[in-house]
Structures are given as C-alpha cells and as structure tokens.
Amino acid sequence: MFEYRTEQRTLEIGGVRIGGLPGRIPTVLIPSIFYTNDRIVTDAATGKFDKSAAETLLNVLTDLTERTGLGTMLDVVATTREAMEVYLQYLVDVTEFPLLIDGSDSLEVNTAGIRYAKDAGFLDRVIINSLTPDTKEELYGVVKETGLANALLLTFNSESMISVSKRVEVADSLIERTKAVGVSNILIDTGVMDLPTLGIACKTQQILKDKYGFPVGNGAHNAISTWKGLVPKFGKDAKKPALVGSSLMPVILGADFVLMGPAKDAPIVYPSVAMVDVALSGVLIEDRIRPEKPHPRYLVS
C-alpha cells in the first residue's frame, strides 16, 4: 500500500518516535496551546494563564496519549518574548512532551524560545515551528549558534499555494538551507490554508516522503478553521466531524504527524487517529511486520 524509493527515517525527539513506514510507528499528534483566543490565556502579552485549566488540559492529553499509544508533541504559541519564556518554563516542568516553539514569523519570539531552551538545558526537547522560505537569516544563525537539532520546515509560500511541484521545490531549498546550519532532525509540514490546499498538501507529503524519507505531515485543521460556509450551510454540529475528517485525511495518506489545532479538541481527534493507525498496521501483517509497543494496535482494538 505504501512503497517508497527512499528508506524511511524514524526520529526520536524528547522521547517521542516519529516517522517511518505508515502503520508501524504511531502517528504523532501536535495540539496547540496558548494560541490566539485560547480561553486559558488571560494576558497574551505577559504570558499569564489559568494554571488550573492548563493542568486539566495537559492531564487530558497525557491520558489520551497513554490510552491510545499515539505520540504527542505540543505546539507552544506565543506573541511576545516574555510570554514564550513563561510558557516554556511552565510546560517543561509539568509535562514530558516535546515542545514546538511557535512564534509565528516573529524573529524575536522564536529567538527567545530557542535561547531560553538552550540556557535552561532542554534544547533537545524543542523544535522550531517553523522555518519557511521567508525566515530571516538571523534565525538560521540562532539555530546554528545554539546547536538546535530539531526543525519543522513549512514548504509553503505565495508561489506554491496551488502547486505541488512548487512546494517540492520549496522543500528542496529549505532542506539544503537547514542542513547547512546543523539541523539533523527534519520534519516537513506541507502547508494547509483551506480545503483545496489540504489535498495539495497531502499529495506533496507523499512525494516528499518518497524522495527524502523525512517525517511529513501538515496542519490539516486549517482547512476547517477557514471553511466559511461550514456552519452557515450545515450548522454547528458539522464542525466536529469535519475537524476529525480533516485530521484523518493526511494520516490515511501516509502522514507521520498532524498539527491538529486547539488542544481542547483532543478527545475527538485522538481516538479517530488511533483507529486509522490500527487499520494501517493491518496492512503490514502480510509482510510479517508488527508495530512495536506502545501502539494503538495493542491498546484500542
């Protein structure tokens, strides 16, 4: 079902395995926390948040991770340097999840996150989210200077919006640029903006997985958050199944990870992805390949 010309790479970041032959290594889900309009944030500028609510949410993610066997990483979103440092300080102490530093396109915020992780001694547990065609050279300098080994590459810009081949070209350039600054663990986000680009992103992930063997995935939830006609045409009840459907599509087509959006949606996304992982593991039985524990095959079926 999945055949690749290139040997598939399985990475381990912060104790979480990611990548490899679909069905063998559990899919990694990457929920976002402290994002814009996240209700647990009380002051986005200073990084103040409701710790009781955050603890509850993190307990839910830990429980789902254990019960499904899926891998979990956290996308840590911040809009200021101060907030990023506050969030990282909290999360590194209360969770064991790898942490994605997500300052969007802010050089200051991303730099602060990387340097804080370096100074506090957990650089091996963080991933920069993300390096893009528009990333400033200064950030690459920070990556090289600190020795950050983990990076998520976003193979998307205005020219590649509706083109698979252009996205592959962007990936080629980003991979070369990223390797040059010493990054050894590369993840590739093929970029989703809306419903049509979800299909483009999924085709791109297949091509890049075949070409390079790096772990691939995308932020499938963007297809739903930008779907303006969803609620007016189908009502609010359609939002949750649409979100689940968007998260399943890349996994069914071979993704190693999914940026699933707000962490509050984890209870509906994790069981659904675990179901698909069990099904994909069945495809490997004829080749006498069994997934290693923990894996949804041994936990949810």
Description:
The protein starts with 9 loop residues before the first strand and ends with a helix. It has an eight-stranded parallel barrel with strand order 3-7-8-9-10-11-12-13, surrounded by six helices. It has a two-stranded antiparallel sheet with strand order 1-2. The protein has eleven helices and 13 strands. The longest helix is centred in the N-terminal third of the chain and has 18 residues, at 51-68. 47% of the residues are buried. It has a single domain, classed as Alpha-Beta Barrel (TIM Barrel). The model has no long low-confidence stretch (mean pLDDT 96). Helix 2 (81-94) runs parallel beside helix 3 (107-120) and helix 3 (107-120) packs parallel to helix 4. By secondary structure, the protein is an alpha/beta fold. It has helices at residues 51-68, 81-94, 107-120, 137-146, 164-180, 195-212, 222-225, 230-234, 239-252, 266-283, 296-299, and strands at 10-13, 16-19, 28-33, 41-43, 48-49, 71-72, 74-77, 99-102, 126-131, 150-154, 185-189, 216-218, 257-262.
Secondary structure layout plus pairing:
Blueprint lengths: L9 E4 L2 E4 L8 E6 L7 E3 L4 E2 L1 H18 L2 E2 L1 E4 L3 H14 L4 E4 L4 H14 L5 E6 L5 H10 L3 E5 L9 H17 L4 E5 L5 H18 L3 E3 L3 H4 L4 H5 L4 H14 L4 E6 L3 H18 L12 H4 L2
Parallel strand pairs: 3-6, 3-7, 3-13, 7-8, 8-9, 9-10, 10-11, 11-12, 12-13
Antiparallel strand pairs: 1-2, 4-5
Helix pairs in contact: 1-10, 2-3, 3-4, 5-6, 9-10
Concise structural overview:
With 301 residues, this protein is of the alpha/beta class. 45% of the residues lie in helices and 18% in strands. The longest helix has 18 residues, at 51-68.
